[in-house]
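Task: fold both queries, return tokens.
Query 1:
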Amino acid sequence: MLLNLSCMKKRIFSAVLILFMSLAVASAQRMNVIFETDMGNDVDDALAIDMLYKYHRSRKIDFMAVMLNKEGEYPQRFIDLLNRWYGCKRIPIGVLSRKNNTSKAGVKYFTEYVCSLKDEKGRPLYKQLPQGYDDWKDAVKLYRELLSKAKDSSVTIISVGFSTNLAALMESAGDEFSSLNGRELVAKKVNRLVVMAGHMENPNYREFNVKEDVSSCQKVYNEWPTPIYTSPFELGLRILYPARSIKEDFSWTKHHPVVDAYKYYLPNMDDRPTWDLTAVLYAIDPGQMFNISPAGRIQVKEKGETVFTPDASGSHFYIYTTPEQRKQILDYFVNMITKKP
């Protein structure tokens, strides 16, 4: 009996040890991700963050934070609402580090609409913090705190809005989190930056994310110390998320904040380009669905035009796709976004 008990204890210990090691390996393989978004200016941000929550819940990534590069009360309220709805309420939120008057503050977008929805009893339809929205952390402070704790070269930043916070981060000085200045901290802790920005096929095009804060975007492309991978305007424009899917593929739930956002933003239920989704997919799970340009340099001109010049010593790349890849990507998006979180 004692021998059997001893053997049983050894088996239990071995099983626990194997489980612990498996979890440790899985954790080590998870990608650390920070998401920069101008949530509220276009509904593709909402579709993109849906994917990130699901990657996080499936332990493919560690969703470290959401950084908002858009002013106003409702973008952060909407993110807080999503954090709670997707079961990720511990993901921190950083708010715009310095004012950017071109970030469309105060305009009634889908973020306010969804946050204001009520149920049949007049209560908020979606759980959210009742107050305290002035207490969110400054994005640069939150960046510095998170990066200082991260392993070297372990963080991927996905930026699908303005470059305001990223430029401010590089300009930051040493503080209680790290003696390194911002550029040094990025160089030490960030592996790569994946950006939705610009137009690589039309050097005269002024893409929204670039032209709304040209100086910050110039600073990022001129000074960012890690490789930058750009998902340009023309890529997402050629892959349209089908409104039919929004109407038909969510019967598994009565209420869905991203579906409500889509329907409010596009009342005619138009298909929508997948600009921000392509940046997220390339960063997390590209498979064989993308092609990468040769190394080069992207110049942001005075009015926001972007020009790519091949250069073997450059650290800038852009992604592009074939028609066959675009079909794969669209199927992936619809399958991913319509799944239960």
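Query 1 returned. Query 2:
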Amino acid sequence: MKNVSRYIDLAFCLLVLPVMAIIFPIERWFHNFQWYVITVGVWLYLLYFLNRVVTVPSLFHAGVRRVSGIAIIIASIAVTYYLSQISLYNPKPNIHDSGITRMLPSVQQYQQAVWSLFMIVEAFSFAIGLLTQVNIQRSRRRAVEAERDRAEIELYKAQIKPHFMFNTLNSLYGLFLTRNEKALESLEKFISMMRYIHTTSCCDFVSLTEEVDYIRQYVGLQSLRLNEMTSVNLDIDISNDSVRMPPMLLVTFVENCFKHGVSSVERTSINITIKEEKGELTFSTANRIFPVKRIGEHMGIENCRKRLNLLYPHSHSLNITNDGRDFRVGLRVNLTSQ
């Protein structure tokens, strides 16, 4: 819009205003009153840019700046009135325009020209100035909204990390408490995962392969504490290694499977599918529900839902079903739309 407004300014100054001036007998006035024509011309061009740069922007502010904008408008009218009142010549009273009735017989033609050109400059400069300011305000509003969305995303990410750590440490605590032989291996995996969280904490996006490797490690860590009653099926198929996605997004749904889909007395299975084709990510989980009351039970999934709405408002679909026995998640995201 900035470049467009400059082109419009050039078009007005080089085409519109000169053409409007030619309608009047500018050549005769310039020949007889050269100083007056130059003065009025300079004033009109000065007025145009004064309105565009100072007057119109001032009207979009409150207080002193708005008052100064109104004062400039009043002053410009006063200057134009002064220029129009300069007497260049007195018409002969005996000479009348044959067949022409003048609406304002006391106003000379050059005075009408000054006021007409003044109104044209005022209207054109205010129209372009208002459009420019509206576009600036809209751009600022979009920037504020984008910054707000970014802050919200960072908040949700910050909430997910301690939420994940609480649940994982709880699992490690159980392994060490029972002196499980897999406890040390689990701790090593946990340290590796914490390293990933630390390196991606300042990243808005990571490669899909990195995120999937992290999920694979997480599933491996959680699987160490399971007995033969629970089976885990992880199906991964990625065709494009360069696709990027937000970190710590899918793992929340995977974590939910191990929170509610594990039983030590009933046979059950956890199914996780991650597929990508041409930038389209398809993710799904399915697990039985074994109710266990936990702190922050719904916080992780709700945060992921909000992050998806902020990052991919029109290019994702998230379906979560819970019939009281099975819990299923189906997510499709066009990762190339971000």
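Both queries returned. Flag for query 2: The chain is about 60% helix and 15% strand.
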